[in-house]
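Could you help me review a protein record that somebody else here produced? This is what I was given.
***
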Amino acid sequence: MESSSTPNRLPMARPGTGTAGKTIQLLTNHFKVSINPRSITDAYFYQYNVSLAYEDGHPADAKDIGRKAMSKVHETYRTELAGMHFAYDGEKSLYTIGALPSKKLKFMVVLEDSSSNRQYLFLEGFEPGSPVPLLIPLPLEPDINLVVALYRGSTSSNINSSDYESDRKRLRRPYRSKAFNVEISFAAKFPMNSILSPSHGRSSEQFQDAVRVLDIILREHAAKRGCLVVRQSFFDNNPRNFTPLGSGVLGCRGFNSSFRTTQGGLFLNMDVSNTLIIQPGPVLEFLLSNQNVRNIHGIDWNKARRMLKNLRIKTSHTNAEWKITGLSERPCGEQKFLMKQRNEGPDGGEVVQTVEVTVYDYFVQHRNIRLDHSANLPCINVGKSKRPVYIPLELCSLVSLQRYTKALSPQQRSSLVEKSRQKPQQRMESLQKAIISNKYDANPMFCSSGISISTQLTQVEGRVLPTPRLKSGNEQELYPQNGRWNFNNKKLAQPTTIGPWLVTSFSTDCDMRRLILDLIKCAKMKGISMENPTSIFTENPQYMRESAPIRVDKMLSMMRSQCRQPPKFILCVLPQRKNCDIYGPWKQRCLLDFGVPTQCISPSGKVNDQYLTNLLLKINAKLGGLNSLLNMGYCSSLGLVSSKPTLILGMDVSHGSPGQADMPSIAAVVSSRKWPSISNYRASVRTQSPKLEMIDSLFQPQPNSEDTGIIRSALMDFYQTSGSRKPELILIFRDGVGDSQFNQVLNIELEQIIEACKLRDEQWHPKFMVIVAQKNHHTRFFQNGSSSSLSNVPPGTIVDSRICHTRNNDFYLCAHAGIIGTSRPTHYHVLLDDVGFPADDLHQLVHSLCYIYQRSTTAVSVVAPICYAHLAAAQVAQFIKFGDFSGSSSAHATAAAPIPHLPSFHHNVADTMFFC
């Protein structure tokens, strides 16, 4: 069924701000931007298109050429540019304040190549029927007159006068063109006073263009300082900012800076940022570290070839900078060539002699360069495949600030998180130092714009919301303190029965008997009925070296052959705590094939009561129990959702890690059930095209008027578990989308949900609320005061004014207690609210949903439905990693890259919180 008209919904305006809670004074990392109106009254930003081409007319598309060429243009043609400064975006556009002398300008610049002013040793490599030239940089040595021809596996009979003449002519050409034609042509202009538009309550396209120009000026400012520029993040080449993560990878600390328009005007939002770079220094040292080997004999050169490709190096003997294109097939000591050398003959005439020499011998004997390791190592190729340039590997060093874009190992990821943490006071100090050291007020374009940026953090007023009230077993009250509570001497709110159950162990280090006794004892204290396991299965040692899927199959085969009745629950002991290869295949087989909830553990050290309690919280939730409940009467919004049938949806899309471009994206939607409870959820998970953010399977109408989409199953489950009621309110919480995708959420995803409801009943018109939650932002809050600044803001801190959007309905909420590092608030955007919640009621509702997360006894940083959707997507991603699925589940799939279809979950677990 198609909609009769194309929807054009826009994010709603803010109806008002909240007042509930205790007022708190905060500092935020937004720096006030002041604009002198006189400087911009009649001034314009001018946009120009930039075209770069080599001298022969071919486009110059290399990423590193643009900024160098434009910098040279500004340096060389200052008069022709009327002394004007410009901001170049590094690609196709530049911006000026005021017009350039002409609408179209053409310049020719010559970039000083790092290897210029040097002669080249020309080597002609030869595969049967195909010459392959090589170049080796030489310093200027007038006393040596060399012309060299290399024939791989050749003899002197291969060389004739025509070959020599061809080589001599090629020597006259530069190896690569250093002259560039630059064309600058007018594209558009917009008034600079459009920067002031939001301050006057008007947002416009011109304002967005103006802010984009200001961000480009920031990037240009950083690039001129020699920073690595990654979008709006800038990284100095300062070893103090580098943190080793292992395997030749470094964490690099820098700063993210961007302009933001808010209720309080224009601000510069600056925050600490981190990226990954390659360890600079000798290539050999990097390879040893990268492959975790002790000596050069252990290096896998196939891996090295893939790792080094496209990295930049400097050579120690010439200080030239090159980009690596590959490695030689033969070691440096075997890479031979025939060198023709002109000498004076006995009769005084010129004699050309042919000498066979290797690249290694050439550098050692003819260049007098000492090589300790290169004889048995491949050479680095910095030329093209048909014109290679070989350099001995130990003469090469990797230059600094080269990004590492591959996926990190679990150990590296853990190390990065741990080492990049900063306490609030440290973060504030580093930001204040950075804003001062950047000297933005000295930037000529900011000066021309009449823009000045404060060096002080902005003070804002926040509120600390009342803490939600919880209930445990026997209606006993729980009193969260600082976002935490416990079950000491308390029973769970709705404990379940565990049995019959069994234990499987892939580990040899776990004391199974002690673990089971302690677990059963703790379960009884929490009100859970748990008997002894029916069986304990330990992996046969002969399978421990097999692949993970085989180990899982062998374990399940042993279980089926020895179990008299299928278990209701399996406790699985894994050999390692994080990223164990067994986890994915085990979960896949148990949830898809056998329909048995399973809890994986890997206890290390002493297992205490807190560990066992946390374990039981997950098990109880998986088996249909609830650990704690919200007291629904403490705020009016909870009263509304408990009096009117309310369906709560949490939606998230998980994408593959860097380096996994072909990994399908996983769309997960969790939906509440058993109304009036708002703590029970189920999950629907689908695969879709890689990197596709909008969920395309919410509504999937079929020719027979049926619907196979995600929302249909959520609506049917709600109806069946909520006393045959249809939801009157549908509250949607969406994670993972940026500001530019808000309209798509409203007009694509919400429209699918509405169509799914219409297909169920044309006369049914539920009210919707759509909220997007963002964690990937750079706003932080700090307590204002010498002593309080040492700690994070208290849980429940909300800010909905001053630094929020000028028009849209958004707010920042820090629901959790930050223990380590600096707390990151969640930025909530209310895109639609048909329900009409007052601001305070909406804030309390969102805050309360951070207290219903059944896996822990703490408030979480984002509403629980989104956390559950993220867990479900992450768990299914492990299935895809190891599964052998076929078919296509998305209309976006192509024949070249079909999207693997995810089989349905077993009916025994499909409606459970298996993801807990």
Summary: Confidence is low (pLDDT under 50) at residues 114-177, 886-896.
